[in-house]
Design goal:
The protein has 13 helices and 13 strands. By secondary structure, the chain is α/β, with parallel strands linked by helices. The protein has two domains: 228 residues, Rossmann fold; 69 residues, Alpha-Beta Plaits. Strands 1, 2, 3, 6, 7, 8 and 9 form a seven-stranded mixed sheet that branches. Helix 8 crosses helix 10. It starts with a helix and ends with a strand. Bound molecules: iron/sulfur cluster (SF4) (2 copies). One iron/sulfur cluster binds next to helix 13. The site of one iron/sulfur cluster has 14 residues, from helix 13.
């Protein structure tokens, strides 16, 4: 709580405040996928003490909202404190700086303020998922998948994420990096105890600072690269001495490559492959694949259609999608 007190002035008595955790899919708190309920509880108590009216909302990438929030432990916290939980549905159409006609839940705009409760994890497509990426959950349900096709490249998708973040405009971002994830996140990586909670009014600064403190080149993380390109990262100072390391996903291209090998390196990509022994044929990947490239009954992925968004890897509840090397 003392960490939050300096941000009291951001809120006024009676403010309706949307708390936007990371509720990616139905996972338990000790799986490091969703924002920990203890973090949500602390923030809710802080907001209640200021006389605001908070509610908790998100639109999961996979699964039914009520089940996802129950599994995360956040529903219990909300019940205990008498806080409403709301699925971020019912979209309205708004224009971003780069992308037009973005459908964002009207419930985001009904709130006076948004508090962004992100998670420190790797992300097979964006490399890290931190504060800026977390507001993508304000786009309802399957509408999210369509953006992968519309954007086409990782750079364009990062640009959309920055647009969405600027539209949602959280007044505060809190990053839960106590128990996070490294390797092939954001759902099926390896648990890592980073032992950090980071708080900032500006998520662009926060994400940049986290990269620095993890010794990750900011340009490697697509959303950070895009926010630097748009001059959105202000000059900032960091309080605290926390440093750590992180194993990046296999999809990250971080090593400098000698010139003659550059073309070769570019032609080797990571593609998803269904691991038959682990797959339970739930078909979630098939439903969520924006390119309709998956035929689960045949364990088949059409690599001519696949755009390598890794949504299938992200939503698979069985960790049954491997990311294998393939020559283009
Ligand atoms: S690969 Fe995963 S998400 Fe796809 S059908 Fe199998 S278990 Fe379900
Ligand atoms: S198969 Fe997986 S990586 Fe390829 S387009 Fe579909 S969801 Fe994206």
């Amino acid at each position: 709580m003392p960490l939050l007190e300096k941000y009291s002035k951001l809120f006024q008595k009676g403010d309706i405040v949307l708390i936007k955790p990371n509720l990616l899919s139905a996972r338990k708190p000790d799986q490091g996928v969703t924002t920990h309920p203890a973090v949500v509880e602390t923030v809710l108590k802080f907001l209640i003490s200021l006389g605001t009216k908070p509610f908790v909302g998100d639109s999961p990438a996979a699964g039914v909202f009520q089940r996802v929030i129950s599994e995360s432990g956040i529903a219990d916290v909300c019940r205990k404190l008498g806080i409403p939980t709301v699925e971020l549905d019912d979209p309205i159409v708004v224009d971003g700086q780069v992308y037009k006609k973005i459908k964002i839940s009207s419930k985001v705009f009904e709130a006076d303020k948004v508090v962004n409760l992100a998670k420190l994890k790797t992300h097979s497509q964006m490399i890290l998922t931190l504060g800026v990426k977390n507001t993508f959950g304000c786009i309802p349900g399957l509408e999210k998948s369509g953006w992968h096709i519309r954007c086409g490249t990782n750079e364009n998708f990062a640009s959309l994420l920055v647009d969405v973040h600027l539209l949602v405009k959280p007044v505060l971002t809190i990053l839960d990096g106590v128990l996070g994830m490294e390797g092939n996140g954001p759902a099926n990586g390896k648990l890592k105890n980073f032992g950090v909670l980071a708080v900032c009014e500006n998520a662009f600064a926060l994400d940049h600072a986290i990269c620095e403190r993890l010794s990750v080149q900011p340009q490697v993380v697509f959303t950070v690269k895009e926010s630097l390109r748009r001059n959105l990262v202000p000059v900032y100072e960091i309080d605290g001495n926390w440093h750590s390391t992180i194993e990046l996903p296999v999809t990250a291209q971080t090593l400098p490559v000698a010139k003659p090998l550059k073309r070769l390196a570019r032609s080797i990509v990571r593609v998803p492959r269904i691991a038959k022994r682990r797959c339970v044929q739930c078909r979630i990947c098939e439903e969520r694949c924006p390119a309709q490239a998956i035929e689960v009954s045949e364990y088949r992925i059409d690599y001519d259609k696949c755009i390598r968004c890794y949504v299938c890897h992200e939503v698979c509840p069985q960790n049954a999608i491997d990311l294998i090397r393939r020559f283009l």
